[in-house]
Amino acid sequence: MATWYKEFKGSVFFRKLFLLAFVTGLILFKTLLNRNLWMNPLSDIMGGWGIWETVNGEQKLTTECIENVIMMMPFSTVVMWTFQEKTGNNWKKILWQSGKIAFIFSVSIEMLQLLLRLGTFQLSDIFYNTVGGVFGGLMYCAVMKTRKHL
Hints:
Blueprint: H1 2-10, H2 12-33, E1 52-55, E2 58-61, H3 64-82, H4 84-87, H5 91-116, H6 123-149
């Protein structure tokens, strides 16, 4: 415990990695660990593409797409911040890397949901998570640019 505390106190990279593990754990808890078993994980492959869904002929407001975007924003921001030496300062490269990482992470989550029958495999989740990853990269670029000017 003392060694861990010493490393946490002395290394900025270790603190960044800890924050990344924490954010990743939160996402995995929401998407995999806190789910009920589904009999047919392929029952709704397309998923919900808007904020309105029709259930038994009634229009109901759903925030699933917005939640998926918001969920990935801090993840990709922390990934870009943790590995900023590898991504550099080019905003196009940052947006490409953050979108790619969010896409791969999202596909991994969806495949685990499919294989473990925890939730449903949905293409809309992959899309919205990837969009959230790009927004997170954009947020990282904005913060770094503002920080540079201050």
